[in-house]
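Fig. S4 source data, part A: sequence.
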Amino acid sequence: MKLLRYGLPGQEKPGVLDAQGRVRDLSGHIADVAGAALLPESLARLRGVNIESLPLVAGTPQKDLRLGACVGNVGKFICIGLNYSDHAAESGMQVPPEPVVFNKWTSAIVGPDDNVEIPRGSVKTDWEVELGVVIGKGGRYIAEADALSHVAGYCVVNDVSEREYQLDRSGTWDKGKGCDTFGPTGPWLVTADEVPDPQALKMWLEVDGKRYQNGSTSTMVYGVQFLIAYLSKFMSLQPGDVISTGTPPGVGMGQKPPLYLRAGQTIHLGIDGLGTQTQTTVQA
């Protein structure tokens, strides 16, 4: 299934994409694509629903029908840094002996095609296409062999980053990662049964029609199974938590010379089978 949330910001309703690429309303079955609705037993019930019998929502998704972030009421937005060796190299950093973990604040989350705001005073706003992993069954101390059974599904994330805030000022990475609009998520949550191998997904990102990132999840240093098990040693993972798993090379910081976003540009990105995003940059 491709689960989604549609409607005006703050008023999104749950939906599902049908075989013709149209949105069907799921409000009669779940209150939101969030929390307990992502548990394995809930997803199993949804799979038993005849999608073609659900109310049809007017409009074409991502054209005249706005989609919100594909997961609502996210509790934790956990990110992994330097998880592609070639991206670490372009950043001038070593591949870490353990995953680099940081947070994006949940207030950064927006729809896949909403505007991205360049923060006031920003000089180094950058892009990062990433595979998002959405937790279904929660847990602590999860065994790596069982980790994928805890995944509700996968989605596209643009880990927008302000590099000066992240790297040039004192403190942690978090303040350069969690600015408002820095977490476009979606367009849909593709349930795990439709993604047989999360380590075999091609991913790409373009700015103003020029492709800068062209990678694959196959080159992750730490794969999805390892990351879930690793993170669960330090925190409980809960239904609806989002893990953004790192980016391949081609970010603005890695260009020679470095190239950063400015207002009025178009970012277009996607992951095979998980959909695409398109954002316009605007000044905050």
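Fig. S4 source data, part B ends here. The chain has four helices and 18 strands.
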